[in-house]
Amino acid sequence: MELVVRKTELLRELQLFQGIVERKNTIPILANVLIEAKGDEVRMLATDLEVALRSHCQAAVAKAGSLTLPAKKLYEIVKALPETDVRIEEDKNGVKVAADRFDSRMQTLPREDFPTLPDASGKARATLPRQALREMVAKTQFAITGEDTRYFLNGAKFVLTPNSLTLVATDGHRLALVEVQHNVGVTQDVGVILPKKTLLELGKLLAEGEGDVQFESGENHLFFDVGGRVLISRMIDGQFPAYERVIPKGNDKTIEFERERLTNAVKRVALLSNERSRAVKLEIGKGKVVVTSSSSEFGEAHEELAVEYAGSAMTISFNAQYVLDFLNVVETDSVQLSLKDEVSQAVMKPVGADGYDYTYVIMPMRI
User: Fold this and answer.
1) Which pLDDT tens digit goes with each residue over 18-64?
2) In what helix (H) or strand (E) does residue 181 lie, and over which residues does it extend?
3) In the CATH scheme, what is the code of domain 124-244?
């Protein structure tokens, strides 16, 4: 194989593979990216057997062929090169990667060792709005647990109906749900669980570019075509919790906050919270909410916020980080907190969100 490719184009694609390949892997070939040169382009593929990414860029191919190279080391080399063309050439002693006056030779692993990935079977097809999908991923992925032994909670439930798409994640302490009304083109409902890593990589792909995302599901895999780059993901096999039942219906006490003021108050007060529980207390009274924290080791803090509230006084405690996770991804100027009592789950929502419905359920803490 022999080809010449622009550094900027190759680097852009290689960067997207860095989150896919694993540094510590018991299967050496999974640390490599598969490079295939043909016609006027070079195609690349990397996988950790759960998530995979196919990508391509323009290249001047002198000799067609395929080989594998260490994804992270190749990225580091290309990144360090001057802004010029990169030459990749295979011979019997390895693979030559060169540019300008720089020359290197890298070890390769057999192309035959690279796993074969499935193609989309077209079991279900949908066209997803890019901007809406980007919002959905950003507003839910932080609520996925990373350690739960219940495997199905290590992902988010993705539901498509003919007229809507919904993404929901929960770790048992909080739940984030985003629903968007949109005709996605499916004829029947689709419900799958996406791994946490899939959402993370999907978010990166959605960060740049325009145009709708093409979605397909196969027997065990899902395919997201984002501007010609295809993210392939295994489905998580399991029964996701009945999230509709978790969302409380009888929360009759409602308080509206200026988002930035609440965010800053919680950040400041949480500095003196118990480091293990990260608890902050909301003391709710007529016309005000006092955010407080205390720890035997550091001391205590409080900050008062003026609000419109005329209901009965109550006190409720939350994990400060859970509150901040929500506030950090909301763009609206105001947010709403609705409560029933001190021990039932609360609901936070952005006020005046355009194009999506966002519901964040958070369990209170007993301190």
Assistant:
1) 999 977 778 999 999 999 999 999 999 999 999 999 999 999 999 99
2) strand 174-181
3) 3.10.150.10
Paired residues of 124 in beta bridges = 217
209: exposed, middle or buried (C-beta count within 10 Å: 0-12, 13-18, 19+)? exposed
Distance, CA of 319 to CA of 297 (rounded, Å)? 18
Is 60 exceeded by the pLDDT of residue 148?
no
pLDDT in tens, 269-295: 999 999 889 999 999 999 999 999 999
One-letter amino acid at 278 equals R
Residues 328 and 347: their CA atoms lie apart, in Å, by: 16
DSSP summary character for residue 212? P
| Domain limits, the chain | 2-113, 124-244, 248-362
pLDDT for the residue 122: 66
- Return the amino acid letter for 349: K
CATH number belonging to domain 2-113: 3.10.150.10
Q: Report helix, strand and coil shares of the chain as percent, to nearest 5.
A: 20, 45, 35
Helices (H), the chain: 7-17, 71-80, 130-138, 196-206, 243-246, 259-270, 320-329
**314-348: burial string, b at 16+ Cβ within 10 Å, e else:** eebbbbbebbbbbbebbeeebbebbbbeeeebbbb
What is residue 22's predicted lDDT score, i.e. its pLDDT? 79
CA end-to-end span of the chain:
65
Considering only the C-alpha atoms of the chain, give the largest distance between any 2 of them, rounded to a whole number of Å: 80
The CATH class given to the 248-362 domain equals alpha beta
Q: Measured between alpha carbons, how far is 108 from 91 in angstroms, rounded to an integer?
A: 11
Would you say the pTM of this structure is higher than 0.85?
A: yes
Where does residue 2 rank: exposed (0-12), middle (13-18), buried (19+ CB within 10 A)?
middle
